[in-house]
Recover the amino acids of this structure.
């Protein structure tokens, strides 16, 4: 009888698990899952309790439950793995967006490697240098789209800007991606460096007038309304229902968004991207559960352009 594998699941496999789970949940339920996870990490909850409290979130994705249990077994044996798993979980929404932009298994795998998600001791500087090396290898339009996603994520987190507000800013700038990125970064100086609002506006005015002078009137009004909203609600009003990509879920059914997601659960790239450990333990799950887990989940095609979650 062969010895069971002790290889840890790769960050790519971890991402696949969380991505598939996210597709089965309402947006609010995904938020609650992440909150529950973080709460138990903060109090160093025993792994049996950790698992017990999170399994209910898999009600609409029962095929993932054996995989999740196996991950929790690894986490119980290795606290660094739990830390890495938590990082991947928190990064999942952003990873999905980058995956959609790259539309390439090879490039997305390189991006995952560049993030050093499996190295919990990697410094911020090392990660940023690795990431910059990866980004510099991309065509400029692709690189700018990824940087745009990064900038929007930071603006949403720090300023509470909704997707519709961000889209308005982009339209006012006549779809100038680099200028849009620069303005989002400048907006955050009010909080990150305590730069007075008037100084922030002046910096943005200088940027806009240098590249899109005709757009300044609209951006000026936009900034005034943004500042008024900020004064009315310091954290800005964050309307979760503003997201047009909220998933619909069929009660009691293991639900996938569309045929592309179904295909993603049925295909896994062969070659260097194939995670032998993942296939091995899923085969073991299939043998003991009677479910066709290996065919349906053991491999996911990262080439697919999946709808935004």
């Amino acid at each position: 009888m062969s010895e069971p594998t002790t290889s840890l699941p790769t960050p790519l496999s971890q991402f696949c698990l969380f991505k598939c789970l996210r597709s089965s949940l309402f947006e609010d339920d995904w938020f609650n899952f992440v909150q529950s996870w973080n709460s138990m990490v903060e109090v160093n909850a025993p792994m049996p309790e950790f698992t017990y409290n999170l399994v209910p979130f898999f009600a609409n994705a029962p095929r993932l439950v054996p995989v999740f249990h196996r991950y929790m077994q690894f986490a119980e044996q290795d606290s660094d793995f739990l830390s890495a798993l938590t990082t991947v979980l928190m990064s999942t929404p952003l990873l999905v967006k980058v995956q959609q932009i790259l539309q390439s298994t090879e490039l997305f795998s390189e991006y995952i490697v560049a993030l050093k998600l499996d190295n919990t001791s990697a410094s911020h500087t090392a990660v940023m240098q690795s990431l910059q090396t990866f980004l510099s290898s991309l065509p400029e339009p692709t690189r700018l789209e990824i940087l745009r996603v990064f900038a929007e994520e930071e603006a949403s987190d720090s300023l509470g800007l909704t997707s519709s507000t961000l889209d308005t800013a982009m339209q006012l700038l006549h779809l100038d991606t680099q200028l849009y990125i620069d303005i989002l970064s400048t907006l955050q100086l009010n909080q990150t460096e305590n730069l007075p609002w008037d100084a922030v506006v002046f910096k943005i005015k200088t940027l806009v007038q240098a590249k899109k002078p005709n757009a300044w009137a609209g951006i000026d009004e936009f900034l005034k309304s943004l500042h008024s909203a900020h004064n009315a609600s310091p954290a800005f009003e964050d309307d979760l229902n503003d997201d047009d990509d909220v998933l619909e879920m069929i009660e009691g059914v293991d639900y996938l968004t569309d045929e592309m997601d179904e295909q993603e659960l049925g295909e896994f790239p062969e070659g260097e991207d194939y995670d032998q450990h993942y296939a091995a333990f899923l085969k073991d799950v299939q043998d003991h559960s009677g479910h066709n887990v290996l065919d349906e989940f053991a491999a996911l095609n990262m080439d697919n352009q999946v709808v935004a979650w």
